[in-house]
Amino acid sequence: MSKPEKFIEDGIRLDGRKFDELRPIKFEVGVLNRADGSCYLEMGGNKVVAAVYGPREVHPRHMQKSTTAIVRYKYNMASFSVEDRKRPGPDRRSSEVSKVSRQALEPVIFVEKYPRSAIDIFVEVLQADAGTRAAGINAASVALADAGIPMKSLVSACAVGKVDDTLVLDLNKDEDNYGQADMPVAVTQNGNITLLQMDGHLTSDEFKIGLEMAKKGCADIYQMQKAALMAKFSKSAEAESNE
Amino acid sequence: MSKPEKFIEDGIRLDGRKFDELRPIKFEVGVLNRADGSCYLEMGGNKVVAAVYGPREVHPRHMQKSTTAIVRYKYNMASFSVEDRKRPGPDRRSSEVSKVSRQALEPVIFVEKYPRSAIDIFVEVLQADAGTRAAGINAASVALADAGIPMKSLVSACAVGKVDDTLVLDLNKDEDNYGQADMPVAVTQNGNITLLQMDGHLTSDEFKIGLEMAKKGCADIYQMQKAALMAKFSKSAEAESNE
Amino acid sequence: MSKPEKFIEDGIRLDGRKFDELRPIKFEVGVLNRADGSCYLEMGGNKVVAAVYGPREVHPRHMQKSTTAIVRYKYNMASFSVEDRKRPGPDRRSSEVSKVSRQALEPVIFVEKYPRSAIDIFVEVLQADAGTRAAGINAASVALADAGIPMKSLVSACAVGKVDDTLVLDLNKDEDNYGQADMPVAVTQNGNITLLQMDGHLTSDEFKIGLEMAKKGCADIYQMQKAALMAKFSKSAEAESNE
Amino acid sequence: MSNEIMSELRKDYIYNLAIKEERVDGRGFKDYRELVIETGIINKAEGSARVRLGKTEVVVGVKIQPGTPFPDTPDKGVIITSLELIPLASPEFESGPPREDAIELARVVDRGIRESGSIDLSKLCVEAGEKVWMVFIDVHVLDDGGNIMDAASLGAIAALLTAKLPAERYGLGTDADLPMRDVPVAVTAALIGGAIVLDPSIEEEAVAGTRMTVISNQEGALSGMQKSGTAPLTTEQMNYIVDIAIEKAKEIREKFLEI
Amino acid sequence: MSNEIMSELRKDYIYNLAIKEERVDGRGFKDYRELVIETGIINKAEGSARVRLGKTEVVVGVKIQPGTPFPDTPDKGVIITSLELIPLASPEFESGPPREDAIELARVVDRGIRESGSIDLSKLCVEAGEKVWMVFIDVHVLDDGGNIMDAASLGAIAALLTAKLPAERYGLGTDADLPMRDVPVAVTAALIGGAIVLDPSIEEEAVAGTRMTVISNQEGALSGMQKSGTAPLTTEQMNYIVDIAIEKAKEIREKFLEI
Amino acid sequence: MSNEIMSELRKDYIYNLAIKEERVDGRGFKDYRELVIETGIINKAEGSARVRLGKTEVVVGVKIQPGTPFPDTPDKGVIITSLELIPLASPEFESGPPREDAIELARVVDRGIRESGSIDLSKLCVEAGEKVWMVFIDVHVLDDGGNIMDAASLGAIAALLTAKLPAERYGLGTDADLPMRDVPVAVTAALIGGAIVLDPSIEEEAVAGTRMTVISNQEGALSGMQKSGTAPLTTEQMNYIVDIAIEKAKEIREKFLEI
Asked: Which of B228, C86, D88, D99 is least enclosed, having the fewest CB within 10 Å?
């Protein structure tokens, strides 16, 4: 698709959303058998799977920390997740995304409970549609809870951006490709910021308003994360009481 | 060479062999000084060298097994072994060949005699002419014996294939390139199958007949392997008694 | 630049030097804060930085030697140091240069004083103009002294070459590119040879005369190295006595 | 009681069950676990499938784009099959470039498709020697519950059967189905003690001495075989496996009529 | 007393200073260390700069040569930014391919230049779809005294501002300055306890829970941001950092008028 | 008695022999071990040779194919020399990409051929700037009995002297010999204590402080030198080595008349 003439008409975006509206979101908890915790997430056209292993032994040994667990995060895009086939394997972008995503989640994990061990988070993007790092963090946060990792809070993430000189929540692919700014944000349930990146052009005022919009979006996602976990746990509890 | 019109005329293959005839084979035992055991083999146009080191210490340590020796097998084609220069170094094909070849030999080695140690097998293909994995296994099996590694049996290998809708033993390069099927087989001296792969198209009946042909070929190769080892040992014994 | 018609006219080289004259040389000692010892060197158009760390712990552990320190040397050319951008990272040339440079310096270091430890030398070429390996060794030798590593001698290095059938000292880039021979030499202060390589064409007599020229050049460089170190140490001493 | 001992006991248990002609999940020796195939799940891919085989799950994506043919087959399309055993799918998988096991799986899936002639590669030529269609088959293993080989192989075929040549996108005519001619099906048997079981679970794989994959086509002929593992097989065992694999493949192939 | 204990005490000291609104080197919270920028230091490079920021030193070289544009931007030049944390610069850096930290630094420097539109990439097109100028920005870190991010970013801009398109060398017209439109400046703040300080030294980085880099352009608008580190920031802290970073960037931008 | 002590005693023994002007295998200081050169042993290669030098064995294969010249030498053929120290050849060699020692060996062999002008590269040009012959020299070390350098160098020259340009295969005229102009010969000396011996065996290499390789051409001039090892050499030692190496090279060159 080439650049549309207008992204917003009569206050409505090309995909029918209002400027501060998230795309449809669907969480599924505990979708994998081998992982200690897992989550499948659809967020707009994004389809991601997150898996958590741990706390477990650290290999190689010299990466161990004597007083805390180490947290590792591996974000990967499937080669078929994008229009033009992506070469398999890590690249510079996935390396950066993995780093900031890890740092978005690490502050809510009680790492001091598991010295010398590792908590491994794997995120696979099966289909990409702008906002994959936010989707990955949302899924990973739920997968951590599903794995029973003690956490101070869930972490919720979404991006705010600018198209047609207007701030909009949760950019889709075209808004991302042709927009003026993209700012992914992750927050704890208290609204503390654990990830913030910005590309593009924003005035200082736009930044401040945009940050509030993103936080509002994250708060909505947090409710969905909680609901998905509740549903899983009540189902498990039910299953157990039926045994 | 482009595809010949016919591969078999009056029951005779283009290189003069009958359908169930092996190519000329020559074993030389103990050709290397540094290796613990070695064997040079010419099998048709294939020229391969196999070397065995071990049992010896395992590096890196974490690969050690506490109750058995580990067996490692590295198959490599010299860049000048084929018509079009091969890029040096391992590729996906050599990785698979190494794996199946290792598994072809491992069952006959008394690995439980050497816990925490490694038995390393290296096979270099100096000239390739179809059937290099079988040639490698034949040479490696003899090199293991030459190294004094305790074995339950030798392992012998050859391929059976299909050209002109006819099953033939020990494909040469053209028969392999333009043929309808290729099935390398390795067996112990009791005829138990330790390697079997098949590419191409075979009916179930053809498979069963072909397997018998391959086993027959392996039995012949086994005799040559034994003879080569006997010759080496009697020469060594003679040398010793003359000292 | 294409090949000049003549490199030497009336006994004077294209850059105005006599046949046995070094290019201008400038040493700066202790230019880096983090390294244990360092030296910046301009030698003609070459600009190199050398840093020394150690004696320090060896990683990975299995590289430790129980009776001596290991010496490691990493020579690297910045991608912007040459006319046509160099791909970043090590290549075969830098690997060989690192090896011979390490061996040029190792014999003067009292490695037996620091068993199980490492002395790491890093040389970065910021601008290259023929003779970078000699420049690197000259700077590294001073950086070792600056780091307080006990040494039997400094090591000094320069090249001798042949242009217009004439032996010349310390080739510049054009003399190197279009010349008939290039021979880098490194010597201890007693004139013992710790590095010698030769490319090109020299008669046996030319070799012997050239070697003497190179040793004379090295002796001059040694004086400059010593002076640079003296200046640094007297400045440090002054600074200390002023405290 | 330590995990290691538990796991040894569990192995013995499975092993002893096999002797009694039983399996830990109650299946008969020739039974497959529940098989669910969904297609068209990734809309950025030209073809895609999710396969669930018991507790095993793989997603296969097919990307198709124009490219240069190999010099020795100037008039034929190109198939490239990749498979990684990513650590998301099992605590036993490690990060990094694909290792032996992953390479073997990819190559066997690839040969099954290639050697069976299931894709008519000559119809993937756009301009001989210059431009052909490149078909990238990427197998993404999400959950290793055992027998990845068959799941991957089924997923690859399902994704190919539903894939479209994106000709319009590249100005090369109208979109079309891939020229599929056959539906090869991989069936894997495992040797546990003297018993031969089909579709081994992850627990069964842990005790199996060897696995034998047999790929057969719609005529019931063989289009690929691979022995994997160190335990030898007798000729009788090998012939038996070939017979039951061909039979089972016919049954599984029915699944594809539903796609 | 061991080094580890010394270092812990040192960290506590810096931490406690921050509570008292002091810094170990006597600077105010918003003060930068001494900044020295030299340009044109590498004559083999089309542009170059050496930046000394306190005890931190980086050399940036810009190489420019003709190349093929990316298919999706056929009429635009290409910027490629590299940065390695080589072990010459710190005992904590290791040999080998660039790791996470180095990749992050390179990508943030790159985005600052790219997203601010500081180079008019459309003027780097020689022939649409065929030939454009490739601008390679290589950041060579020589001494890690802290805040490599700002030093690298400043060095990159300084090298670009003084770079020449080597058109004559490639028979593509006469040499010219790069088409620069803006001077983005990166300002990095660190959170130490509750205190926010600019331009953290290496010692301060060791105790900082998080760093926040804010890149702003000559209009005082934002052209890039990156949070790095695990400590969360409140909205108030984030907004405060943005305000002081924009202010400080104006001050630093003055430096470039001297180039 | 442990292997380590045995090996130390063995080293002392060799060292002490050298002082007495003796060698462990009875050779004189300037004697080479038995040298056997066979050519034409690999029929898939355009040239090939097997060299046995005492207990050392190398196989060299030369592949020749058309390719693109380097931009700075558009009218010259290309030589690319590779050498790996594969673990088949010695318990001390490891798998993986070539390391320092292997790279050094390959580069010295390469320079010997290149710098001596032994191949007339301008005759390997097919069409200037477009197509030249690429000569790949691959040295395969099979058994490391010491002095791989000379064996590799001899093998490379022997393989080149018997190589054919495969012009017919590529439709580029009729097959021809490579345009060889010189036969450079590498002679390696080792310093053991104060003694200088030629063609060191593996045991001698283990005690040698340094090795010095001198490559000379048929006129008796030098076309390459490489010192390898940490022990310094005096000027007298260096000059002596050059003299005896040139003398010995003449003797060895005779071997090639037999090819």
From this structure: D99
Can you tell me which residue has the tokens 């558009």?
Answer: F74
Buried residues in D232-253 as b, exposed as e (16+ CB within 10 A): bbeeebbeebbebbbebbeebb
Q: Do E107 and A106 count as a contact with CB atoms less than 8 A apart?
A: no
* Chain E residues closer than 8 Å to A204 by CB: 220-222, 242-243, 246
CB atoms A204 and E100 under 8 Å: no
What token pair was written down for D53? 């085989």
Q: In terms of residue numbers, what domain contains D88?
A: 8-256
Distance in angstroms (rounded) separating the CA atoms of residues C144 and F122: 46
Mutation target to probe the E interface, by most E beta carbons within 10 A, among A111, A112, A201, A205 is: A201
E2 domain residue, yes or no: no
Token pair 């390490």 is at which residue?
A: C102
DSSP state of C23: P
Instruction: Calculate the alpha carbon distances from C230 to C51, C147, C240 in Å.
Output: 18, 14, 15
When pLDDT is averaged across residues C44-69 and rounded to a whole number, the result is 94
Instruction: Tell me chain C's radius of gyration from C-alpha atoms.
Output: 18
Ramachandran angles phi, psi of F177, nearest 5°: -70, 160
- Mutation pick from C26, C36, C39, C80 vs chain E, by most beta carbons of E within 10 Å, is C80
B102, B201, B208, B209: best mutation site toward chain D, by most D Cβ within 10 Å? B201
Query: Cα torsion for D118, D121, D124, D129, to the nearest 10°?
Result: 170
| Ramachandran category for residue F22: left, alpha or beta (phi over 0 → left; psi -120 to 50 → alpha) | beta
pLDDT at B166 (0 to 100) = 97
**Contact call for A199 and E246, based on CB within 8 A:** no
**Chain D contact set for A32 (CB, 8 A):** 57, 88-89, 142-143
Establish, for the pair of chains C and F, how many residue pairs have beta carbons separated by less than 8 Å.
Answer: 92
| Domain A16-83+98-229 superfamily per CATH | GHMP Kinase, N-terminal domain (3.30.230.70)
D75-132 confidence digits (pLDDT tens): 999 999 999 999 999 999 988 777 999 999 999 999 999 988 899 999 999 999 999 9
Q: Which residues of E touch C122 (CB under 8 A)?
A: 86-88
Contact F71, F145 (CB under 8 A): no
Tens-digit pLDDT profile for residues B182-209 = 999 999 999 999 999 999 999 999 999 9
Written as tens digits, the pLDDT of chain A (243 aa) is 678 889 999 999 999 999 999 999 999 999 999 999 999 999 999 999 999 999 999 988 888 999 999 999 999 999 999 999 999 989 999 999 999 999 999 999 999 999 999 999 999 999 999 999 999 999 999 999 999 999 999 999 999 999 999 999 999 999 999 999 999 999 999 999 999 999 999 999 999 999 999 999 999 999 999 999 999 988 888 877 776
Domain boundaries, chain C: 16-83+98-229
**Count of domains in chain D?**
1
Terminal CA-CA length for chain F: 48
Domain-located, residue F1:
no
Cα gap E163→E49, rounded to integer Å:
10
In contact, E182 and E85? CB cutoff 8 Å: no
Tokens of F238: 């260096």
Residue D2 lies in a domain: no
pLDDT surpasses 60 at F85: yes
List of E strands, chain B: 8-9, 12-13, 25-29, 37-43, 46-57, 70-77, 117-127, 155-163, 166-169, 181-188, 193-202
For residue F1, what pLDDT band results from cuts at 50, 70 and 90? very low
| Residue C115 CB contacts under 8 Å (≥ 6 apart), including other chains | C65, C66, C67, C68, C69
Q: Is residue D1 part of a domain?
A: no
